[in-house]
Specification:
Layout (H helix, E strand, L loop, with lengths): L5 E6 L3 H17 L3 E7 L10 E4 L2 E4 L5 E2 L3 H10 L5 E3 L5 E5 L2 E4 L12 H6 L5 H7 L16 H9 L1 H16 L8 H4 L1 H10 L2 H8 L13 E4 L4 H10 L3 E5 L3 E7 L2 E6 L4 E4 L1 E4 L3 H8 L13 E12 L3 E3 L5 E4 L7 E6 H4 L8 E8 L12 H12 L3 E3 L5 E12 L5 H15 L3 E3 L9 H27 L1
Parallel strand pairs: 1-2, 1-14, 2-10, 7-17, 14-22
Antiparallel strand pairs: 3-4, 5-9, 6-9, 7-8, 11-12, 12-13, 15-19, 15-21, 16-20, 17-18, 18-19
Subcellular location: Cytoplasm
Pfam families: Amino_oxidase
Keywords: Cytoplasm, FAD, Flavoprotein, Heme biosynthesis, Membrane, Oxidoreductase, Transmembrane, Transmembrane helix
Length: 474
């Protein structure tokens, strides 16, 4: 019995939607599924936050600059596209925390700020002796008896005290989430630390035991990857590869309605499309508006998103004297700076910068400190340059500056996030059974997390539309 052709629509053309479309197309070809695939993106370009500017021999990332290699799905996507030979590793080097006027090395053996080697922690200038003694309380404190979720701040402050959290753990984790540690969910962000505490009691000892050891003589290898010509390489390759996918760019989905067995999508052009299955990869605010009349995602009404900006600055080599050998620094909230971090991009990613030049990238904006993102480009550039000059000797003005704003772009997984996501998905399965959610608002912000979600929803939707149809036919 031949299977009826199914119409699949993916809404959102960021990395989640592109991954879903690519693997949907791949499954259709390999398994002979009769599919008509459409991808709708409201902006004139694909890729979402992945944006690479190639200028005067520089490679400037406006959004993310890399992905974590140990999360294999993004590298696998590159391999599936045939572009894995273009991947490059980050150069390794010391990273720092800026506290007061001084750049302090992140203690050796730290895993997201958790010390696994005692000597570097004890000798670090990041903490007072009282702060170090308080952190040692982790060795004797019992494991938590909290049932359910808790904030990262509460969890880490209980184990190590305020000083270690504010001068080391918070700057590192804020660099990932741009969030408030005292609101972010432990279970939705770093559930592995809760597991370590429950199994080993001491977070220090447990992390030391569970962190893979590298051979002592082996050269330290970078844990991040990007493409020689910038991250947008993967977006360009995906767009070229989607030959069986109808792409709508500059078109916005405005409404979803159940019409019989299908879902009807109303576009901003006034036209409509019919779908047997939909994958929504838009930010949660956009998704909520699409599903509003169905009473779905009301729990996400108050889910915050943080606004951030990045400022890339190019210089001639003789204009800049960086006093430290390393790849960059994060900034403690206890310090009087507007920037939250700085990457010495020419050192971390040598392929981005022409010989004889320097490329630095400053970051501004985080939960509770977002007003700076609304300043003009010139004002943001001045703020960042003034902050950088406190730690780095910089002569003259940059050759060029690239300011990129990301308004409400960093979804905040506040306490209870996982439960909210599961309730919304259950509600969706009841009211719009072949509509799926995926993307950075739900189960991971990183690029591999988004690829994983796109693949997972592709698999789930195809199983529902085809495998169950085969069972019913039998």
């Amino acid at each position: 019995m031949s299977q009826q052709k199914k119409k699949i629509i993916i809404i959102g053309g960021g990395i989640t939607g592109l991954s879903a479309a690519f693997y949907m197309q791949k499954e259709a070809r390999e398994k002979g599924y009769p599919l008509e695939i459409t991808l709708i993106e409201s902006s004139p370009r694909l890729g979402g936050k992945i944006q690479t500017l190639r200028k005067d021999g520089f490679i400037v990332e406006r959004g993310p600059d890399s992905f974590l290699a140990r999360k294999v799905s993004f590298g696998q996507l590159a391999e599936d596209l045939g572009i894995e030979d273009q991947l490059v590793k980050n150069a390794t080097g010391q990273a720092y925390v800026l506290v007061g006027e001084e750049l302090h090395p992140i203690p050796a053996g730290s895993v997201m700020g958790i010390p696994t080697e005692i000597s570097p922690f004890v000798t670090s200038g990041l903490f007072s002796w009282s702060g170090k003694v308080r952190a040692a309380g982790d060795f004797v404190l019992p494991k938590s008896n909290i049932q359910g979720d808790q904030s990262l701040g509460h969890f880490f402050r209980r184990r190590f005290g305020n000083e270690v959290v504010e001068n080391l753990i918070e700057p590192l984790l804020s660099g990932i989430y741009a969030g408030d540690l005292d609101r972010l969910s432990l279970q939705a962000t770093f559930p592995q630390f809760e597991k370590v505490e429950q199994e080993h009691r001491s977070l220090i000892l447990g992390t030391k035991r569970t962190t893979p050891k590298s051979p002592t003589k082996a050269k330290k290898e970078g844990i991040f990857r990007t493409f020689r010509d910038g991250l947008e390489t993967i977006v360009e390759s995906l767009e070229q590869a989607l030959t069986d996918v109808q792409l709508y760019k500059g078109v916005r989905a405005e409404r979803l309605q159940q019409v019989g067995e299908q879902v009807e999508i109303t576009l901003n052009t006034g036209s409509t499309l019919q779908a047997d299955g939909i994958i929504l990869t838009t930010p949660h605010g956009v998704t909520k508006s699409l599903l509003e009349e169905h009473g779905i995602m009301e729990e996400f009404e108050e889910m915050p998103s943080t606004s951030v900006a990045t400022v890339a600055m190019a210089f001639k080599e003789d204009q800049v004297q960086i006093s430290k050998d390393g790849t960059g620094f994060v900034v403690s909230r206890n310090s009087d700076y507007s920037i939250t971090a700085c990457t010495w991009t020419h050192k971390k990613w040598p392929t981005t910068t022409p010989e004889g030049h320097v490329l630095m990238r400053g970051y501004v904006g985080r939960a509770g400190d977002e007003a700076i993102v609304d300043l003009s480009d010139k004002e943001i550039e001045k703020v960042v340059l003034d902050d950088l000059r406190k730690t780095t000797k910089i002569d003259g003005d940059p050759l060029f500056t690239v300011v990129t704003r990301w308004k409400e772009a960093m979804p905040q997984y506040v306490v209870g996030h996982q439960d909210r996501v599961q309730r919304v998905k259950a509600d969706l399965a009841t009211k719009l059974p072949h509509v799926k959610l995926a993307g950075s608002s739900y189960e991971g912000l990183g690029l591999p997390d988004c690829v994983d979600q796109g693949k997972a929803m592709t698999r789930e939707l195809l199983d529902e539309l085809f495998l169950k149809e085969v069972v019913v036919a039998k």
